[in-house]
Design a protein that fits this description.
heterodimer, A: two-stranded antiparallel ribbon, 2% strand, globular, B: 430 residues, two-stranded antiparallel sheet
Amino acid sequence: MMRTLPKRRIAALLAVFACVWSLAPDGAGGAPRSRRKPGKSQAVKNLPELKTPEDKIRFLEMIRNTFPAIRSGTPNLSSITLDEILDRYVTDETSTPLAEVVDDETFLRRVSLDLAGQIPTPGGIRRFVSSTDKRKRSLVIDELLETDQFARKQARYWRSVVFHDSGANRNMVNPQAFEDWLFEEFKAGTGWDRIVGEMVSATPRRQKDVKAQDNGWQQDYGPNNFVLACENKPEVMAAQTARLFMGISIGCAECHDHPFDDWQREQFHELAAFFAPGKYFMSDQYDPSQRTEMEARFLLGEEPPLGLKPDQRRVAGAAYLIYNPDNHWFARAFVNRVWSELLGDGFYAVDSLGPDKEVVHQLVINRIAASFRYSEFDVKWLFRLICNSQAYQREIRTIEDEADLFTAVRPSRLRSWEVADCLEIVIGKHEGLRNAVTTAFEQNPSIPQQDLEGSLQQALLLMNNTVLQQRIADSPLKKELLELDDDQEVIRHAFLGVLARTPTTDETARYVSYFKQIPDRREAVEDLIWVLINSAEFTTKR
Amino acid sequence: MPNNNLLNVCLNRDGQVSRRRLLQVAGGGFAGLGGLPFLQRLGLAADEARRNGRACIVVFLNGAPSQFETWNPKPGTENGGPTQVIDTAIPGVPFAEYWPKLAAMMNDVSVIRTMAGKEAAHDRGTYHLLTGRRLGGASRFPHFGSVVSHELGDPDAEIPNFISIGDTLNAGFLGVRFSPFVVPRAGELPANVEATVAETRVDRRLSLLADQDADFQTAGAERIAAEHQELYRKAARLMTSEHLKAFTVEGESDAVKSQYGRHEFGQGCLIARRLVESGVPFVQVRRSGWDMHANLWQNIPRAAGEVDEGVSALLTDLKQRGMLEKTLVVVLGEFGRTPKINQSTPNVGRDHFARNFNLLMAGGGIKGGVCVGTTSSDGMEIDDRPVEVDDFFHTMCRCMGIDADKELITPEGRPLRIVDAGAPVEELLS
């Protein structure tokens, strides 16, 4: 891990801030310095105060305009090129054959779950399968990317990423406001850089004489909630910024030098200093009463000008995170998250990257990440790139060996809210049941799919929950099925309605024979719906 | 028996069915699942003999209690703060004033005052103290309860081998078979354990489900489908279990309920006793709210009072029922708190501190009346007998009859010892 940068680089970094600076008459910025001693601050004049979100966004926007990738180009990576490069790397590693590309039904269910968070309707499946348009997969990807469900899915995912480990008091945060804000941003196609910039640079302030739960922390303003989920604590913000937006795990450097990587305790606290409301002190590892003042310094050695006010310093932190051309972690972390969500495996564990050598097929993801920058961090561009690739459209396989990564797609467990949504399609809305489902299926969204496990509680819930059983008995699907005379049609309809695919011949035969054994048709139909809802496939993306 | 030919691959030297092997068998065809209980019964004889009635109850004090306000007070010193002390049954070993009931029964309990931790963040400390390993690296280690479940649990048991009242860590690389069964609140039946249709119909549905999952398994979802079937098999067994009533306080007298304390934690201790009595080898009960950076002296009396009441009732009850000898009871948090009292507002508290902290052990082969280690008068340093987390785990393993040096195999095939280093705290062992 790089500890310090060549001086030339540091000068380039300073230029990022300096270009905005130069607006000030006495032009701050300047030549690279060696590591400073804290306390020798000099005032920075004429720099905007950056107290309001609008000022911060405007300032970050000016820095954004100096970012080379954004200034100079359009993304130059197509799904076809991506497949060519990836296949070359993958086949170098393993002799395991690449899995076949999936059929239309499987593709449609997969891409609908991935981009809209729910399964397609029987009518939608029929139309898609019967279409003879050669570009139909591409078109449906474009269509889904423009739906509200796409934006909602991304918003929910990031809400759960940010809040999963949050220790914040619930009166201090408003996860729904956070989700709703993200929804609007994803819907509008706002670049990932701008979204993160707004989150990280936010400074929610405690409102005097207002109860915490009554927006006392300005938590109803969506972007404030990343900082609030971090309990407004500089150390937590530092750890989470690195973990969520750079994919690297430096949290343990809070207390000691990182045991596995090169991260020093001092570096962690220099990062935390960006988020402090005033001077920032690092407590001694052994005697917390001994404290050393730390100056803000970003992970690649970026030092903001001296004398910044807390708001300005936080904006500087956001700028170094996002717009330092040398910080390749930022774009790559997002690419890896999205890839990992879509294919079931990442190029590395999404939030715990140690040294770069842990990255599999490093050049491939670096290439995607570079292009993602050229796309101006366009989230939909990235989804479009991956979803149109063969890598994404391969059949599932349980990959056990790292060398076999990306020879197939890994079957992925649906997120808790997706399980709830898929259930609602069959049995309608029920708030209590929805809560029970989302609680039982809750998982840390940052844990790799291959490490996730099901639980006994999940099984018991889908098997026996009284509301669910009653709703199955009363479901419109059951009514529809009972109106059909032909057993094979009943079975086909049930599969399409619950699993969004037609049954195989074996499956049809199995249930036809079951229907013959059970004299009570209502009972048989209910059993069929029960089995499909309880099947592993129902809660999995195949 | 169609599975006879699998015996050699499925049983390792100890007669254990390893998870990976089991999954491979399951992956080899779902018809094979019907034969699994046979395989497991083979393992069972060995398990039962090895377990020999042993069990473990871990009382986890979430948030990390202060050693100064629990069992290692420093009265009359600046760091000791306003906390008064009381005598215990061990001469010369006073406790903080908040623990009168346990103080009186220290003949049956021992205290380690010199736990030497390394992690002072909650998640990392919790991980270290409950798995015995430090967080990081490629493998996620199992909660000790999962290890107990793996080593001593009856795979064919009707109720899960590891029950946690309140959330906790999972089984890590040991996988879902050894995961804790979490009951959110003490005294309630686990949710959704009652079938809504007749038993024969449940069986029919499950049989269809097994075929459905088998199809999915062939389609490439080997691991997910196999695990899913296993969960449903377990779920079905739990639903019809006689032991379900152990999750409730049904049949306990008011006197007993009051003795344990009329609070969530106390009732949790009572449920823990009932679960152990019905054969569960590992139960965890949790009492949160110990992260007292501020308002420490305002909050400690109630927190300590509940734990003092619940744990003393539990130990008394186990002893009266003749179960204490085989039931190890451990009371601990994830680390300790700073000797120096901070300047938090409105009221002061103590921050995170891992260099030394304390915990209690009783029963299950632990000698009572022992106090291990001493710390300096300002509480900063260990003067005598540091006990590493590894040593503590060795001691628990010894009590439970688990070979701490045994290697567990991760799904990647990596052998990892149950405890990595250290040795049992011999002075605690009878």
